[in-house]
Specification:
This protein is α/β, with parallel strands linked by helices and about 325 residues long. The chain has helices at about 10-20, 55, 85-105, 140-155, 180-185, 205-220, 235-245, 260-270, 280, 295-300, 305-320; strands at about 1-5, 25-30, 45, 65-70, 110-115, 160-165, 170, 190-195, 205, 225-230, 255. The chain has a 7-stranded parallel β-sheet with strand order 3-2-1-4-5-6-10, sandwiched between helices. Helix 1 (about 10-20) packs across helix 6, helix 3 packs parallel to helix 4 (about 140-155) and helix 7 (about 235-245) runs parallel beside helix 11.
């Protein structure tokens, strides 16, 4: 049996591939990119564009193989409203469809697939369990929801598909929208919050995401969807306040009227001059907290990192890169376990 990881050179995929190699498993990374990663000494990389059905079919998947789909277009960088469908759908939906069809051709039946908590949209029940209504607020969440519908169709034909819906994934190598926050903190400028900042904000570590995929394989690839998020996320104002204090910054946290800010951002989005994606700001003051008890119960999974520590680690990485210093691996000491 091989482990075939589409998007395996990406953010979550590279950590999953490294762990599987460490476990002594045979790993094929199928990705359009190839980084200088040490685990490639013991695994195979195949240049693969998931939007190309023929390229996906050329990956040597066999019936007994374990397949992971971690290829995706994310909400960073921010793209204009006019560009979003063409940006997200070819990779997120068409790529997933190509992978599932290629698996079916060879009789492969085990797939771990990452979607997103953005399929939920606005919060209707708190905390959000996996049966929360799915009403995505934009093309990213919608493209991911449609892949879950594909999974449901293939399950009726015997395919086993474990779905994961993570909150904002954080870890070494990706800053995304956090870079804008860190620049404000570095320049001692006010840090605006959408609303009062009393609602919690939840991250999830990239290492915990990779471990979830591995545990799904170990558990026999349950035909289930699982939320992934940290435990006990703090209020936004505490999370940001701890960051400002750690940075020694003079930045002040600035509460804002959520309704007015959202309408302003809506107008900028309508002008095709977005500052944030609507899927981010429309829920920024809501209680968007995932209940992850199902993954803990079914898979033996747990979130190992606190939101406060993850944000400060990301800021430390930002500072190290800005100053030309190496990033210390000790920022995520548990990741090596």
């Amino acid at each position: 049996m091989k482990h075939v990881i589409f998007g395996g050179d990406g953010f979550v995929g590279r950590h999953l591939a490294a762990q599987l190699v460490k476990d002594g498993e045979e790993v094929i990374v199928a990705d359009i990119a190839r980084s200088d990663l040490p685990h490639y000494q013991h695994s195979t990389h195949l240049t693969t564009d998931v939007t190309d059905a023929a390229a996906v079919r050329a990956v040597p998947i066999t019936a007994d193989d374990m397949v992971y789909n971690l290829s995706a277009k994310m909400l960073s960088p921010i793209v204009t409203r006019a560009e979003r469908h063409a940006f997200f759908w070819p990779v997120n939906y068409d790529g997933t469809k190509n992978i599932m069809e290629a698996m079916d051709e060879v009789g492969a039946s085990k797939l771990v697939h990452y979607t997103t908590d953005m399929i939920y949209g606005h919060t209707y029940t708190y905390p959000q369990k996996e049966d929360h209504p799915a009403n995505p607020l934009g093309e990213y969440g919608l493209s991911k929801l449609k892949t879950e519908e594909l999974a449901a169709q293939w399950r009726t034909r015997g395919m086993r598909v474990s779905l994961f819906r993570p909150r904002l994934i954080i870890g070494p190598g990706r800053l995304g929208i956090l870079e804008k926050l860190f620049k404000l903190v570095d320049m001692n400028l006010p840090v605006p919050m959408i609303g009062s900042g009393a609602n919690p904000y939840q991250f999830i570590s990239v290492f915990d995401c990779a471990q979830a995929a591995r545990l799904a394989w170990k558990a026999g690839v349950p035909n289930e969807a699982y939320n992934l998020g940290s435990d006990n996320p703090p209020p936004v104002r505490k999370l940001l306040g701890d960051l400002v204090k750690h940075a020694g910054s003079k930045s002040m946290l600035l509460p804002t009227p959520a309704f007015a800010v959202k309408r302003t951002l809506d107008f900028l989005d309508w002008l095709n001059m977005p500052i944030m994606d609507p899927e981010q700001y429309l829920i920024a003051d809501e209680m968007c907290i995932l209940d992850c008890s199902k993954a803990k119960r079914d898979l033996g999974w747990e979130a190992r990192f606190r939101d406060e520590d993850m944000l400060i680690a990301a800021y430390s990485e930002y500072r190290a890169k800005k100053e030309g210093r190496p990033v210390k691996p000790s920022l995520f000491p548990q990741a090596a376990e």
